[in-house]
């Protein structure tokens, strides 16, 4: 035990763990409370201590923040704060029923566990939770499982579950861990879980900051004689740090600098220091300064503390975990004391997307530091710049390989359009868009397009692309493929691209063929538009090919639709038909028997008397009964007679006389 009257102790070597103090979730929760009370708009109460640190809780109390044990203790209109440990569904229901406003400061990593267990419970899974059943975080997780769960503290309890309960459970399992769970014990637990069982899902939910803090502390504890762990006595993650370190060396758990005076460190040549996630930076500094006074060392503890934190620089490329999302930004944990923010404009170029459309909570992403504010502990980051770096490499490679890339037209600019390809803006000149001069480039805006890179400027990181080149290449490939497979009689489906007076041009997939007007209908038509229009999809067949000239003649009329075949199958000489007069000539009248087939009523067959003028007896549109008296299918000639019917009707009268 140290006393102020004792002589100066031998100066030990002091090392500080690389990660120590506030984690992202705790830092966020504390800031939310301080921000709220700074506005002085509402009375504030936290549901339980905001963190397991008496200094912070007492400071908030001095500023008017109450600590309550349940929703029922809230005063009318008092704003509740859900701490970073999170709560069960029932607490949200109680808040809604009581009507108090609240701030949800649940750590995003804890909220992720809530989502997992809630979803898996609905899917019929039984939930196993690694942790301390009395810890508020674990109680909150249990509150999202609909009592369909079991909490185990270590590998022995987990093994007991599998030995005694698993076979009778007859349910699939989902296994999660408290975010601050001991990583060493978790490693032993993983050995107990049956391998390659599709009905058992294991989720790695130990917070990466917790894991890093524990692994750093374990590594440091193997290099020193004594470890000092700073943090609240009720802090679960601080206790776990103590457990991890005490396996390797003599370890002490103190709440603040006052605890140093109770320790015996006389024979320690090397001392290590770490701190729990609930320990503010100023308490760690106080511990460092107090040790300096005790050992009377000329140590720059401010510098020592800074060395314990990971340094970052503007322009540096870092990895981060998406901790939370809102409509304007992503909040990121990059493993430092800073709170990281990625604005929407640095996530994507697409203004229609929200952060949740680009990244997911818990996802690891590569980022570039764009701005650092050490005073406020904030760092601004960009995902887009990383995407651009990677994307530009891909674009340069695509040019060398003459590859086709996919992109979205983001903007119409002077002289062309800008296409976003792998996060890189590629300029496509108007002449390379494939859009006609008489049309607006706006038709491409927000459209998915394919393009080739035709120019790259490495120094300026600029690229020029061509949509037209892809379309041309596709047409050439389609033509080559067509001529390779084409043969007379082969059937295709194609779109009508244009009409002329003599026929319709049909796109067969990169190459056009023509259907002559005579091939569009069995009836006589004056223009192709009487049968088809641009955009129609036709089933056509090849009538003739000229590969040298690149000409394709197509047929559209189907044999089964030939009206002369229909006539042949349904009519014979002697049949009586109803026919409609369609034209008058000096030698008779043509009458339509069925659509596409006309018969001639010769002037001598119009009546049973001499007829000098056909128009005196018949008129266009008149329907008459006539008898088929001759058929020549080859010459497509049919003779019909009205007179024959008149003679047939007189014959029975003669026989009667």
Could you say what the CATH architecture of the largest domain is? 3-Layer(aba) Sandwich
Strand content: 25-35%
| N- to C-terminal distance | 154 Å
CATH fold-level topology of the largest domain: Cobalt-precorrin-4 Transmethylase, domain 1
CATH superfamily label of the largest domain? 4-hydroxy-3-methylbut-2-enyl diphosphate reductase, catalytic domain
How large, in whole angstroms, is the Cα Rg? 44 Å
What is the number of independent domains? 7
Helix content: 25-40%
Low-pLDDT stretches are 1-8, 297-309
The spatial strand order of the largest sheet comes to 13-14-15-17-16
SS-derived structural category: alpha/beta
Sheet with most strands:
5 strands, mixed, barrel
The counted number of beta strands is 32
Overall mean confidence score, pLDDT: 84
* Bulk shape: elongated
CATH class of the largest domain: Alpha Beta
Number of helices: 17
Key words describing this protein structure:
17 helices; Cobalt-precorrin-4 Transmethylase, domain 1; 29% helix; 657 residues; five-stranded antiparallel β-sheet; disordered N terminus; single chain
Task: Walk me through the structure.
The structure is a single chain. This protein is of the alpha/beta class and 657 residues long. It folds into seven domains: 108 residues, 4-hydroxy-3-methylbut-2-enyl diphosphate reductase, catalytic domain (Cobalt-precorrin-4 Transmethylase, domain 1, 3-Layer(aba) Sandwich), CATH 3.40.1010; 81 residues, Rossmann fold; 99 residues, Cobalt-precorrin-4 Transmethylase, domain 1, CATH 3.40.1010.20; 66 residues, Nucleic acid-binding proteins (OB fold (Dihydrolipoamide Acetyltransferase, E2P)); 62 residues, Beta Barrel (OB fold (Dihydrolipoamide Acetyltransferase, E2P)); 76 residues, OB fold (Dihydrolipoamide Acetyltransferase, E2P), CATH 2.40.50.140; 91 residues, OB fold (Dihydrolipoamide Acetyltransferase, E2P), CATH 2.40.50.140. The protein contains 17 helices and 32 strands. A five-stranded mixed barrel has the order 13-14-15-17-16. Strand 14 and strand 15 form a beta hairpin. Helix 6 packs parallel to helix 8 and helix 9 runs parallel beside helix 10. The longest helix is centred in the last third of the chain and has 19 residues.
